[in-house]
Design a protein that fits this description.
This is Chromosome partitioning protein ParA. It comes from Stutzerimonas xanthomarina. Keywords: Coiled coil. This protein is of the alpha+beta class. The protein has three domains: about 150 residues, no CATH class; about 100 residues; about 110 residues, no CATH class. About 55% of the residues lie in helices and about 10% in strands. It contains eleven helices and eight strands. A hairpin with a 2-residue loop joins strand 1 and strand 2. About 15% of the residues are buried.
Length: about 450
């Protein structure tokens, strides 16, 4: 796409409130070269739109991209996006007065490796970025030269007179009406196709956000499940070791019992040999030997029984602990869905260090970028946080939200019912006055009379 001499390149900067700055492309190049710095954008990532404007102040192409600024207000020296090339190769976008524009954004990028540096415009009524661009360019605050639309006169030699008998031909009138109807139908189809294009663009951006949130939650759940499985494997290994030690102790007890039995048999043989020499000595030796053996066996048996009992208790405790851990695992697996939706402070800090920006949308305040240190205050009272951003009280902001969602009179009638008279919507919380903006003229005058009396 060749840039015609009457086509002008402009760059517009967006913040939460809309367009905050505009400049011609040569000024933008000077800023990129470090000649000019923007202290109001210092240490921020700005949303920027590159547009091509014709001589009638109509937008013909738009590229929505990000631009980072350093702490001294200078633009990122590593930024390098071919804006003109993207505008030339972009797909069709909405009609902003001169036919469908060429549009390059995150969900419609002709060059895949530049997609991560682009952003999708907001199509919400009242916050539509395309409408903001169109209206700001129409204001012509950049001082662009405007081409006046002049009708060209037809030379007299090219004028021809039709035959008189065809002046009032009904067929010609029907053909003109038919062509007008076909032209109107074609325009309606083009408008419907453009509206469908805008809705598909918005749906694509929402789908990308949803898929990113699902992937993040799945990764978190997988990490937590892996941690739990490792803990269960460790406990099961310890339980297996305890069982193996118990088996070894029982085997040792059996071996020692067998050894005692062999010793007893040997001593019995010795006792019988002694009996042959002396029955009295043999009786005494037998009694003494039997007593000693019984004492030793009883002591050994008691000691090993005590050890076995201890091991049995430990084994039972391990079995009970294993059962309890299994129940905990099942409970934790049930809570994975809840944990996937609720992230702790550590996860917030980790996401913040990775460059994730926490944003929330509130009427009147727009998309708010919430700092990590403000997350607790925002979670405690989002309404108060949004009211502070709008520089109004929480009560005024809450009344304004009710008025913004349902712009009708809130005064009560004599029957006790609400008036519900339709009112003009006040778009800004700062311009909203309780008792004035949310009441119709009749109830507003009654409030003034009561106040005056």
């Amino acid at each position: 796409m060749q840039i015609k001499p009457q086509t002008v390149e402009a760059v517009l900067f967006f913040n939460d409130g809309g367009i905050c700055k505009e400049m011609l492309y040569p000024e933008f190049e000077a800023m990129l070269d470090g000649v000019v710095s923007m202290m109001e954008f210092a240490d921020q990532q700005m949303r920027v739109a590159y547009v091509l404007v014709n001589a009638r102040l109509q937008i013909r192409a738009a590229v929505f991209f990000y631009l980072d600024f350093n702490e001294d207000g200078s633009a990122d020296s590593g930024w390098n996006i071919p804006l003109r090339s993207l505008a030339e190769r972009a797909g069709r976008g909405p009609d902003l007065g001169a036919g469908p524009i060429r549009l390059a954004c995150r969900s419609q990028c002709p060059v895949s490796w530049h997609q991560m540096h682009l952003w999708d415009p907001d199509l919400t009524p009242g916050k539509n970025h395309f409408v903001m661009l169109r209206d700001r360019i129409k204001r012509n605050q950049l001082g662009l030269l405007v081409e006046e639309e002049t009708s060209q006169a037809v030379p007299a030699e090219r004028l021809q007179m039709v035959a008189e008998d065809t002046w009032y031909a009904p067929d010609a009138a029907k053909q003109v009406a038919t062509r007008r109807a076909e032209q109107l139908e074609k325009e309606q189809r083009l408008k419907a196709a453009q509206l469908i294009k805008q809705q598909r663009l918005r749906i694509a951006s929402l789908e990308q956000l949803r898929e990113a949130d699902i992937a993040r939650l799945r990764d978190l759940a997988a990490q937590q499940q892996a941690t739990l499985q490792n803990e269960v494997a460790r406990l099961r290994g310890e339980l297996l070791e305890q069982e193996q030690q118990t088996v070894k102790l029982r085997a040792q007890l059996a071996e020692q019992a067998e050894g005692f039995q062999k010793t007893r048999e040997e001593m019995s043989q010795q006792l019988r040999a002694v009996e042959q020499n002396s029955r009295d000595e043999a009786d005494a030796a037998r009694a003494r030997f039997s007593t000693e053996v019984q004492v030793q066996v009883a002591a050994a048996v008691a000691e090993y029984k005590e050890q076995v009992a201890i091991r049995d208790v430990e084994l039972a405790y391990r079995n009970e602990l294993d059962a309890q851990l299994q129940e905990d695992i099942e409970a934790l697996q049930k809570q994975v869905g809840v944990l996937a939706e609720q992230t702790g402070d550590r996860m917030l800090e980790r996401l913040s260090r990775l460059g994730v920006i926490f944003m929330a949308y509130h009427p009147g305040a727009g998309h708010l970028t919430i700092a990590l240190q403000d997350m607790a205050r925002y979670q405690e009272n989002p309404l108060a946080y949004a009211a502070a951003k709008c520089a109004v009280s929480e009560e005024q902001y809450g009344k304004w939200v009710q008025h913004y969602q349902q712009p009708t009179c809130v005064a009560s009638l004599s029957t006790g019912e609400r008036c519900n008279m339709p009112l003009d919507k006040v778009d800004s919380p700062a311009r909203f006055v309780i008792g004035e903006s949310n009441c119709c003229a009749r109830h507003r005058s009654q409030d003034r009379l009561r106040t005056g009396s």
